[in-house]
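### Sample
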Amino acid sequence: MMYSPKTIINLPVARILLFPVIALLVFTSCSRRIHAKGPVEKYLDIMPPATLSTISVPISIPIPVLQNSVNQQIKGSLYALNNLSYTGAESFSMKVWKQAPILIRGWRGDQFEVTVPVRTWLKGSIDTDILGLKIKKSTTANLGMRIRLATKITLDGGWQVNTTTRILGYQWTKAPAVYLGPIKIPMSFLANKLIDSQLKYIGKRLDAEIKKQVKIRHMLSKIWQEVQTPFLVSKEHNTWVVLEPKNLMMTPINTRNQTLNTMVGVRGYASALVGSKPVSLPKQPLPQLTLKKSLNSEFKIYLQSSIDKSYVIKLAKKNFLNQTFRSGKRKVKVIGLNLYGSGKKLVIQAQLKGSLNGTVYLSGTPSYDAKQKNIVINDLDFSVDTRNKLAKMANWLFHRRIIRKIKTAIQVPVKAKLEETLTEARKALNNYKVSPGVHLQGTIHDLHIEKVFMKPKSIVTWVLASGKIAVLLKGL
């Protein structure tokens, strides 16, 4: 009897041979492999924008210091005049000396009250009637008086100090008189005529000396140049602040509390640069004066802060790695994780094992949650290629609960980082020496993260710092 070749394989052997094939078919039907392409890796090459800010420059000149300087310059003889003639007085000569220290005090608004004690020598001829008596006599007199003046300080458009002094009055400390025998005849009315016409010389001398001592243009020229020089605010992050000043403003001068006070504001665009010290821009000349009743002295600037990518991945793995996501009988476990940037987006590369094997990609926009003080990922979703492939082989992974879990896992707390940045900025601005005689004194009262994006090795944040910065002058 002849047998067909089909009959030589018995059933047990067939089952053994077919089992691996069936098992493979069952396995591949339950566990599928995905080969998704991730978004192109690319990074933004951008710097924080410059912000319009004001650096305030309080100028305070103690009036006693001004008084001391004026007294050092005005000594002895003030002026001398000859051949003065008025009705009743002929061919008079006059010499005027400072008799005691000049007194200066704050008076009204932008004015000083100045008291000048003087000694005056007069020599000439008197020809007049006094109380019905005809007096014609050559006389010499030594007089004493205290002259009160008001000096107003203003600045012109080029920051030059101008002063205007007017006479408030005077008081005789040793009044003039003519003696006819034992009779003393007051001569104040004649002396007043002589003195009134000559007080302008004292005013001019006083104006000249105050203008020399109040060196506002000199101080501002130095400040204007210095603020255009980059200054370091963070040694750890090599962060430099660069100010491009645009205009210079000043409040009206006042003389309250025995101090000449005004506030100057340097208004310009401030920016922060990371790296080596930036090259200074060409220095701008001192602009024209702009008077303001008050100044908004708020200073704002963007600082860059970074969080190492390795730290973020470590944190994400702690929250996310080896988590199992289920949908009915199907499940996947995350066994690998990486992060990178694609323009404005942060990309999560997740390696899966289970009902679906392979690598999937999710992307979203990193941002700052001010309430939680965390960096979070908004609009997180599977990337286009991953989504298209999942639609064909594992649609169950589209469940929003999975996206929410991933979004929660990739959160970076930055409260401590912000506090560290705030402390460092405050420390840097505490009496920062710009140059001899010029110091920065400031405080930062608020930090707010406004932009978050990826770099190859870190997550970078733009932190908007708000506060006040003043330039203090010491010894100028």
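The longest strand covers residues 133-155. This sample (Lipoprotein, putative) is used throughout the tutorial notebook.
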